[in-house]
Amino acid sequence: MRMRWDDLFADLEAQARELADGQRSGEIEERTRAETARIAVVDRLRPAVGSQLKLRCSGGASVSGTLVRVNREWLLIDAGAGREAWVIAREIVMVIGLGRLSAVPGSSGVVESRLGLRHALRAIARDRSILRVRLIDGSVLDGTLDRVGADFAEIALHPAGEIRRRAVVREVAVVPFGALAVLERES
After folding, report:
1. DSSP letter at 9?
2. How far apart are the C-alpha atoms of 47 and 36, rounded to whole Å?
3. DSSP letter at 111?
4. pLDDT tens digits, one per residue of 85-129
5. Which of 12, 69, 186, 187 could form a disulfide with 76 if both were Cys (CB 3.0 to 4.6 A apart)?
6. Strands (E), 89-129
7. DSSP 170
8. Greatest distance between any 2 Cα atoms in the chain
9. Cα within 13 Å of Cα(136), Cβ side
10. In sequence order, which residues have a C-beta less than 8 Å from that of residue 136 and are 6 or more positions away?
11. Strand segments (E) across 38-111
12. What pTM, to 2 d.p., does this model score?
């Protein structure tokens, strides 16, 4: 009789362990799902600095190269052969080449969190780079950033490869930030 009771209690203890293990496993899975839900695209991109990526953006623009810098509003890609591309983060449609790692959400540095798109565009305007600007509607503008406002950029349109001079500027386009997809320049 004693043996039957021992077997019964052993069986109940085994069931309790299985139940506890199942609950713990379910809790771990639920916590993992909750943590994953907090991860943004930039959190996936930050650990990939130095990696080769392929990006597809609004308007059909494609960019391939080494990820150099990640900001919540833009990415800098070394496209090789002395070219670089500033990709507007909200216009990314797809990224190929990311590993499994993610940065902790909200762990960007103080400087990164303060330097938005406007700051990057002003730096490009200051150095008078010749640009190819790809817009979200698929159109392409060749020129130089003249001015950067609160929510727009003025681009002096001139032939690709020409240095901005009054004689070669055909017209000036005012482009809202929301229309920008990719800015490419020779580095």
Report:
1. H
2. 15
3. H
4. 999 999 999 999 998 888 877 776 666 666 789 999 999 999 999
5. 69
6. 92-96
7. -
8. 106
9. 13
10. 57, 58, 59, 91, 178, 179, 180, 181
11. 52-57, 62-70, 74-80, 83-88, 92-96
12. 0.78
